[in-house]
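User: Can you model how manganese (II) ion sits in this protein?
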Amino acid sequence: MRLLTSWVASANDPQSPFPLNNLPYGVFSTADTDPRCGVAIGDMILDLQAAEEADMIKLDEGSIFDVPFWNEVMELGPEAWKKLRKQITAILKNASAHQGRAIDMLTPQSEATMHLPFLVSEYTDFYAGRHHATNVGTMFRGAENALPPNWLHIPIGYNGRASSVVVSGTDIRRPWGQLKAPDAAQPEFAPCRRFDFELELGAVVGLPSDGPITVQEADDLIFGYVLLNDWSARDIQAWEYQPLGPFQAKATATSISPWIVTKAALEPFRVDTPEREFELLDHLKDCGPMLYDISLEVGLLSKSGGKKIITETNYKEMYYSSAQQLAHHTTSGCPMNPGDLLGSGTISGAEPHQRGSMLELSWGGKEPIELDNGETRSFLEDDDQIVMSGAARSETLTIGFGTCVGRVLPALENPYER
Ligand code: MN
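Assistant: Here's the modeled complex, given as structure tokens:
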């Protein structure tokens, strides 16, 4: 793998998350500009609205960067995605003829506010990490019944709420809900006492499906990937989930990182899905490497300054790829659309430090984890901050996702006593 060099010097460090090889897509604003599409390069952002107005980007008849979201680009399809990447590379590469004008179209990332990069049309969350499903199943139903009988045959999911998806940096308010402690006689309405994160990757669907599609066709429809935190109220979930799955426990918020890392950037890091215990039915069969070697980390920062990297894992731990999840999603004829967001499911590895949620890390609260200042945590406390980061790495270059950050705010007063 060769690092492509740019006249933006900060992009040429093998450790930079945003070299010319990456070119992730986001939406940013500054004190002087409204939200607009941009691409990250080193520690800067190239303003694509300005680049299009200056005729340095030309994709179609008319403007596509006059709106602050990426859905219109997605709808143009893979040929246009390729063309855009080529044009941006031509602007930012070393010794580009565009450098003189493009230099004025750069904004330091430190001066930008990031926004949701696309209009989330719908949101589905899956449960496709085998270690996570085994851990949670063991805690909820015992080791004998940890994996439900369907788990090794289909990627299980539930329909989430697009309206709950927020961009990294948005504070998350601890929810109220109906819950029942295992030893309590009656349920109660109370603030969540077992608030949690889930480390996931989100696949962004770029094109509509037309009826049931194959795994290969599904992969072709995916535009890119983001980091995703599926905030989860475990005590609400444990009470409500049978028999139709999670509902209010997952409806408070889902955070995503602001940069969509494209499939093109991740291409060199494709890896196979794991060995399978049962052969999948034809329509879900693997047809090439569809996972990616992406290192993932979760940091917890407390109000009093405690901190710790609590999770170190990798996206290649998943049992089903996003392409398999998307193919499965269409089997019923369910229409999928540009801007559909698919959560991978919690990404846990086999080792304790690879677990992607507090529920697993503290084993249901029985084994609290310790921060570097001696504080302990079973679940998230008020003012705790969760920082997710991810990157695909080779010796020569990094394809970074940046971070997905969220802070837990204290619950409000009882919303019904007013
Ligand atoms: Mn989830």
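A couple of observations from the model: The longest helix spans residues 78-92. The pocket of manganese (II) ion is lined by residues 125, 198, 200, 230, 343, 345-346 (CB under 6 Å).
User: Helpful, thanks.
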